[in-house]
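hi!! sorry for the late reply, been swamped w classes. u asked for the two structures so here they r. pasted raw, havent cleaned anything up. first the sequence of the first protein and right below it the tokens
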Amino acid sequence: MQPKARTFGIAFTIYDANQQEAFKVEGQKLSWSRKVSLMNLDGLVLVFIRQRPMSWHSRYEIYRQQQLAATVTQKLTFSGRQFRVRVPGQEDFRVQGSFTGCEFTFERGGHQVARASKKLWAWNGRYGIEIADGEDDLLILATSVVLDLIRRDSNLYS
């Protein structure tokens, strides 16, 4: 996942394991509630992300086909930042890690199901995201976008 600089918006390109463009992410930066779309290369919106303003902690909703697919909420802890990803009808994810270290792990049921790391890709400004087989790739990618948005809002971009 590689962010692109834009003055009034947000843009990412998500590459596959073969370094081929796989998805585009575009959104509004200057709005009351941030709105971001994860699209295929033809511009079809696959996932829509909406920030919920006026919540106690950072809260984002992830939609697929206009249905709520997940809610991401932030929790501050002594050991770093922790996020809960509520998925209707499924076991929730727990995401924890460090913004300054750019390392996050995704766990479900006590097992790691994904890992996002900027350290492995720091030379080109990208995050590397490893997702276990059988997991919901789009949901994990959308959650990774949310983490980066929260990181940007925290002014912790290095």
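now the second protein. again sequence first, tokens right under
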Amino acid sequence: MKKKCFVRIVQICLSTVILLFVTSCQATFSTSSEETRSWSKQAPLQAAVQTLKQDETGIEEPVSGELDADSSIVNEPSSDNPSSDEVDSVEANVVVADTDVADPGAALSDEVSAYKPLPVPIAPLARVSDAQLQSTRKNALERMTFATRKAEPDSPYYHTTWLTYYGRPNIGVMGILGEYDINTLVRLLRTKANEYDDANGAGISVMPAFHLVYGMATRAPGVRGDYLNFLSDETVMEYIERAEEEGFAVILDIQIGGLTPVASMRYGFPYLKYPNVHLAVDPEFALVHPDQAVPGNPIGYVTAEQVNQVQAAMFQHMIINGIRDRKILLVHQFLDEMIRDKEDLDHSYPIDLTISVDGWGGPGGKISKYNIFVDKSDEFSSFKLFYGWDVPLLTPSQALGLESYDDYLTIDVMPNMIIYQ
């Protein structure tokens, strides 16, 4: 009994001493390091949102057949007066999150996102001259991801940078592709590709590509109830065939809407039989939130598991149909939450899974966000630039990280693809 009492007294004494010591340290730390914590490098990576949990939303997989042209789209915030056929696109009306915020998991406007921004100061960066940059970065290949350096000749990214013009035919407000007829577009795209070829230097070529918003999210559910409007086969084939003539590629982008990611992407699978056709999925317009009425408001998301399911279905389709060409699957992202459990993405498929860092804004926000989302351990990356919304617009050398912007802002890892919208 005496022994137990003695042990208990010793425990109480030790607990008291430890408590006093911890309290003292906390007081000292809170006074001396308040400023240091505010500039922590980890601050931009902290999520400023409450996680929204919901089971995957979707309807039955689509039945093959003619796609209806019903449904309404929305209007981009612009001073232009769009024609009546432009006022129904969801992408055109949803305000894209400005990237001039340090936290990648926050949007600027409560009107377009359920996520609320947490203001985080961006720590000042050391100034680096272009001469210093060139001397330390050496050649373009050394600035690429490890996967790019190891890419086999069958990879679309083998010693190649992709350059795409994005949009929806005949809807100029959705991107440069819709602003011009196909003949003018070919000339403009080839000219821009030459600029990137000059910037790349020897040893790296450029692949120009038409980047079609093939499955466009709509405000109305349409006759299928999937909130998607697909381009006609005639329109898609016009771009595929012209691309083949010009030596270009084609990316068919699908905005998910009210379907599951796999169900929405199946619409694009038949076009994979063409060697120059690749696919992209856009989580922004996935209807995944409780009581969500319109795609894109709030911003949608996909999980890594869903992306893996798309890869599996895509690969299965390729095997069944004897498609031997290696394909790109691009996933759009401008918020951290748009690809959940990102670390669980499966890179074992013979598909070049590419993460596209989107979002418009000034060079500071765009470059900082890209550098947060992408490092050399990633497989393949893309960087999106916006005509009229990125002010000033980065030059090809700046977009590739070959030159710094304003002496100290620099793309750390060279993108495999540059998208112009």
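hope this helps!! also noticed smth abt the second:
The first helix runs from residue 2 to 32.
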